[in-house]
């Protein structure tokens, strides 16, 4: 196997399902050539804007017709993944589907039927590693989604690898995370030291590893509000609006719609000729809209465990002097969709002025501008913009308590000069900043579990067997610990021949074929003198897979001639050999931070593994090492899948769960865990 590991996450949200593909370098190989700075950093993941794809609507819409979810929904995503992952790596590439708020709202019977059908389809129509449905196809809790987003955000901002450059004061160097989609909203942040000590039992202990095996721990609070996404909030708003008027009314004024716009209660535009039992008529009153949406925050709900924010939900006090929040999904779309673009810092005064100006316009004027663009999605955004803006303003400033930038005092922060100037321009040192991308990389919570997974493949420092993952804030491994899902093994002493050859294949161009083949010949000659016989065979296999010389047209089994024949002689091989052709065209792959991704469409939005010798999700061999391994269960938990007899575990490491079902020798159980 080559030097890269791969992983696939299908983000199944309320509005659609989105494919994300990641790869990273095998830790054993990455450690060989890493600089001192890289050794103290987390693994570097790779992605590409061509590796993402979204299909609408969401998986949850198949709740009453689960048998159609494969052919009508997943097939396009699977086909796209198959076009990206090298063919010879497919059987060792794990695939996960993580469903969020849209699926959480379905009845349990429909959830079970859908997850069963999804796994059955993926198992029967693909060769990706998926030996256990319960481990790979799951509905993750909102708290887990929020924590994954917190990991992804701080990874991209550099707070993990370079904390000294992100000193916000009081020893605090991480950023808070806010996410809002169509059905739910999440918050995740590390409280200041005083609040962390006061609410220690409410925090999650997150553990990762840097490339040198050093443990990195963080204490994070995360919670979710189901029903507080923009679509669910709109439904609640319309319901209360109708209840406030006489039951016999045929037309109800709606201050959250542009003036003159008529819609059904479900939000579909209507004209004078349309027949409907009840019509909402927009009045374009943004101040009135703010007043009508404020009660939806549930600020008067009982607070059993002080302090509380929205709907009586407990949240430790937020110190905005050091907690600077990044908001994604609707926080970005609603502040930038029809109200402007750019990555300059957010302030409420400027934003609210833009909203009021837009919402006071007559719908005929707005519709004319929209129709000129011939963009149906933009028309929908314009129709919903006033309600969404009022909801976000209420949630952020009256619900969460974010200071009203432009209207209130902004705290000073401490940080390095270079980071300060860059962060100030982008607004990251303000209490709140909506983002779509960080350094041209899309901020998606799906990056979070893959960072944990890659970190879990790194061998720990000698004697440190605490696993990578997160759970209750205790010194030991708690019962609710959610493992990274990957295994680790000792560094290998293999040479770099495979890596060199793979790099040549990846970057070979058709118009440089002669030079490329000359390089291969040089490598083959050198390999004859420096490699053992079994490694010579592996190299020859790679040569044949690239050239296809060992497999003649029509399936004839004639001995290879020419360069392939010479290679056989040099490497001590005779007779025909058959191999799959190595996937080419990966020259445009690059690390996070160096590429654009497609438009941000988060799973819950109303609009929205570099390889090693074994797959990180594969069932380990006897010499594999584990941190107490496991994979994700349907509730977002990781459970162990290997018995103590088959693993080299510390004697004090608990084992739970069950072994994943055995597949073929090439499809190994994914979740030996870390």
TrEMBL record:
Pfam families: GDA1_CD39. Residues 585-674 are annotated as: Disordered. Residues 600-611, 622-647 have a biased composition (Basic and acidic residues). GO terms for biological process: CTP metabolic process; UDP catabolic process. Residues 585-599 have a biased composition (Acidic residues). GO terms for molecular function: ATP binding; GDP phosphatase activity; ribonucleoside triphosphate phosphatase activity; UDP phosphatase activity. It comes from the Eukaryota. InterPro entries: GDA1_CD39_NTPase (IPR000407). The active site is at 145 (proton acceptor). ATP binds at residues 182-186. PANTHER family: ADENOSINE/GUANOSINE DIPHOSPHATASE, NUCLEOSIDE-DIPHOSPHATASE MIG-23. This is Nucleoside phosphatase family-domain-containing protein.
